[in-house]
Amino acid sequence: MNNKELGAVLKQIAVYQELAGENPFKSRAFERASRIVEQHPESFATLVAEGRMSGIQGIGKGIGDVLRELVESGRTAVLEELKAGFPAGLQELLTLGGLGPKRVRLLWEKLGISNPGELEYACRENRLLALEGFGEKSQEKILKSIAFKKQFQEMHLYAEAEEIAAELEDRLEQSGLFSGIHIAGSLRRGKRILKDADMLLIPRPEAEQQQVRATLTGLADSGPEVEGVLGAGETKVSIRRRGLQVDFRIVEQHNEPAALQHFTGSREHNTILRSRAKSMGLKMNEYGVFRGEERLPVEDEQAVYRALDLPWIAPELREGEEEVEAATAGKLPRLVETKEIRGMIHVHSSYSDGLVGVEEMARSCRQLGYEYLCLSDHSRSAGYAGGLSVQRLREQLAEAAEVNEKLAPFRIFCGIESDILGDGSLDYPDDVLAELDYVIGSVHSNLNMNPEAATQRLMRAVANPYLTILGHPSGALLLSRAGYEYDEQMLFTALEQNEVVLEHNCNPHRLDPDWPVLKRAARRGIRIALCPDAHSLQDLGYMRYGVLMARKAWLGAEHVLNCLSVEEIDGFFASRKSRANA
Q: Domain of 266: which CATH number?
């Protein structure tokens, strides 16, 4: 088992311990250990094999014994014993918004509800009204959550699909059967969530068809109740891998460029291209570009577009909106690139709920080639995340100043992720906010406001002169929580007028706001900050998802706050502070 799988089991144990009503400190220890294991730089399987687990902070003897058992046998008696006391469907209930372990246990004990179907029926019969802590609003919220989950059944996060595709790519390369392996489809275009993944494969001339098919079907999920192989033909093999449908398209080498363009899509983009080809007396499909029966020479994907008198269009833009029109007019944007990101914004440390200290995080950012780090631990209202008291905040400011002396010219900028309270105010008085380099404001509570109230809350926060960046504005969690509605145009106007930056939260469970919102904001002149919301060193890698979404939104370096140099962003923060203090 890899670290991610081990961490998931520890988290599951924590949930079942809470369901069972065990000591809350015990379940919190397992939950914290799950994050430590998932984000540890070394493989725990190796640590167990070499007897090197002792001394890792947060991994005591009990949790160490569980990890050892998991590594050695793939199972743990602790989880099996906990699960034996509950119906299997309770775990699915825990995935619904607003239902934690205590409430799920109450539903089971008092009403015998053990799965989402029973819960939906009970809500429609108003049976939850008899339970303490539940009411009409609770029932409405639960029904919305069930409907949301049904809508996105079998969908996967981009990061999950990317990881699965990378595993498959590695296995296929090791097989030696293919001269070309390409990610295609919605995964290549960078969709936030997707139902399946497409991979384009070019077998070597000596590879036998039966051998290719057997290799591909051998990558499928297996088990008595698992349909791992969905289809296996000559040109397409479909499997499920870790629950994700993967479609392998098997293509001859001379068709590779056209097939890569075709299977990247989208359908709407390809329809526009085919119409353009037809207007030019050409025909195009996955086999090539043709004039009559003659196949035009296209040596790569760029040449496919050149055959239509177009520059190459980046995959992220191929959504069938305005990209072909822009390409025709020579107005395609120069999209931001990872190498242009010069600093990390929105990073948590062990002062709140991060896993590493300020200096370690700063050194890691510097090692990755960044010029600066913008700290933003949670504010005091976020007790669930170790939010900082004013005293703790000032202690962090003092430590950051010391680290800045050590690491110069690398720079730490000190901020806070301030909770936006229910009335739109920020979580510290102005005199405390004035001590900081910058302030991110985020909504973490009262997510059920109506659109009018939610909009007014955000606009009041944006009007605060100390707010620099508005964080994850919808509060959505992909595939888990739809987020709240707000008036986008009113919010954009407020952001413009107050020159507040809009965050794109790069955590793969958020990616909030979606790329069309970023695109509309940037066209209003609103600057975007790409923020990994990192709680560990590993989370710094979330930046690549932000860059991907920025590219989908047609953003260039000029739109992105992180593309400022350390001197430029220092000047930006200083200018904002001087106006706030005026």
A: 3.30.210.10
